[in-house]
Design a protein that fits this description.
The chain has 450 residues and is an alpha/beta fold. The protein folds into four domains: 4-129, Response regulator (Rossmann fold, 3-Layer(aba) Sandwich), CATH 3.40.50; 136-309, Rossmann fold; 317-391, Helicase, Ruva Protein, domain 3 (Orthogonal Bundle); 394-450, no CATH class. Helices cover 46% and strands 11% of the residues.
């Protein structure tokens, strides 16, 4: 059983690397080409691949592509004496475990290979575990009957035991933190801390101290040592919500931590070793932000080793909406000790756009269980026998519904021009509707809103 599959066409260089790795206790199989090594690359192999980039017959990127076609989770380390930033970026973007520039420090290469080998051993040991994590167990946490949610539960079950960074993408209210908690709770790290931090909720001046910690006296007001969130998550899972809001300088420091699995507290020179799994969440496209200079592209690739998309509620279909509405309604009714004879307003609920997704739907179901209209009327409607209500004319009801819809889309914070286009009306019409329903600031500045 080999620990390392070494692919290098220069016999002298191959022998030197093989000797170096074997002296450190690693079992190495050396090959001059991809074709010679191919039969050793299997899903069951515990080895990692160390390959030169420039070779006579193949290049390292062909090796990387071939290995990932067999098993995307087999680590491939590329090494080159002709490296530049674009080559390193391409390697990480293509799925390489890491990229090393020659001449490389032997101790660093050995440590990197050991880390990749430990990662591979963990993948294999928990691949069987992930099969035993039944999606049925996750069903109690991730609710839904649509094919998209069934696939999501299956993906969570498969990824829970795989110790890689995951980037969760989804709209507000889709349950990104719930998915992150499932990834932690069904993983071998479940007994260790799950540390969540909302990058948008902290002022930029506090974010680095919260993440990395600080020593006493590191800055004005730092009276005592503080353990940061990353260090607190050691051996567990660090969840970075709204990662797109992280300032660029903090992104650079986080990237270094992810690369080296070490951190320094602010005001300290001591390196602290880390064993953490990072799960990040965003409602934005990090790579699009990177193209605009608002997010580090190299960090985006580090975070998105495995991207995991959560579908919006409207994409899950009307049957899903009705199912969840009924579930939440019955849950609240049971908690309140109410006897429910019939679920009301299902059709109206199914037609609603739900920009706030499952979170908004849960709130609507709670309102309905309390006797209020699920879509936001402030007056109890009396349909569960709890309250008396007054009827309204059709025109009044339509106006209230229109106002609710406008409020919902305006909370997304998009430009008025884009919002109007989504609604199929002109910007001027949207502006007039907003003024009609009292949704403008008193000075009318919203007309040129952003």
């Amino acid at each position: 059983m080999h620990d390392v599959i070494l692919i290098e066409d220069d016999a002298a260089v191959r022998e030197a690397y093989q000797d170096m790795l074997e002296l450190s206790g690693l079992a190495v199989a050396g090959f001059p080409s991809l074709s010679a090594a191919r039969r050793h690359v299997t899903r069951a192999s515990a080895a990692v691949v160390l390959s030169d980039v420039r070779m006579a017959d193949d290049d390292g990127f062909a090796v990387l592509e071939a290995v990932r076609s067999v098993d995307p989770e087999m680590p491939v380390i590329l090494i080159s004496g002709h490296a530049d930033v674009s080559m390193a970026t391409r390697a990480i973007r293509s799925g390489a475990f890491d990229f090393v520039e020659k001449p490389a420090d032997p101790a660093y290469v050995i440590e990197l290979v050991r880390r990749a080998h430990a990662h591979r051993a963990l993948v294999l040991s928990h691949r069987a575990l992930s099969r035993s994590v039944a999606p049925a167990a996750i069903e109690q946490r991730i609710l839904g009957i649509s094919p998209a949610i069934v696939r999501l539960r299956e993906t969570i079950a498969a990824l829970a035991g795989v110790d890689v960074s995951i980037l969760i993408q989804g709209e507000t209210g889709t349950g990104k933190e719930l998915v992150a908690r499932c990834l932690h709770d069904f993983s071998p790290r479940a007994a260790a801390p799950f540390v969540a931090i909302n990058c948008a909720a902290l002022p930029p001046t506090m974010l680095e101290s919260e993440l990395f910690g600080h020593e006493a006296g590191a800055f004005t007001g730092a009276r005592e040592k503080r353990i940061g969130k990353i260090e607190h998550a050691n051996r567990g899972t660090l969840f970075l919500d709204e990662i797109e809001s992280m300032p660029l300088d903090a992104q650079a420091r986080l990237l270094r931590v992810l690369q080296e699995r070490q951190l320094e507290r602010i005001g300290s020179n001591r390196l602290i070793s880390l064993d953490i799994r990072v799960v990040a969440a965003t409602k934005a496209d990090l790579f699009q932000l990177a193209r605009g200079g608002h997010f580090r592209e190299d960090l985006a690739y580090r975070l998105a080793v495995v991207p995991l998309a959560i579908p919006s509620l409207r994409a899950r279909g009307e049957a899903e909406i009705a199912f969840l509405y009924g579930h939440f309604f019955m849950e609240v009714s049971a908690r309140l000790g109410q006897k429910v004879t019939q679920l009301r307003d299902v059709e109206a609920v199914q037609r609603h756009a739900w920009p706030g997704n499952v979170r908004e739907l849960r709130n609507a179901a709670e309102r309905a269980a309390l006797g209020f209209s699920p879509l936001g009327d402030a007056v109890p409607d009396g349909r569960n026998g709890q309250f008396g209500g007054q009827g309204r004319s059709l025109a009044e009801r339509m106006a209230r519904h229109e106002k609710r819809e406008l409020e919902a889309v305006l909370t997304l914070g998009r430009k008025l021009q884009d919002t109007a286009a989504d609604l199929g009306i002109s910007r001027k019409t949207l502006y007039l509707k907003m003024r009609e329903h009292g949704l403008l600031a008193a000075d009318g500045d919203n007309e040129n809103g952003s």
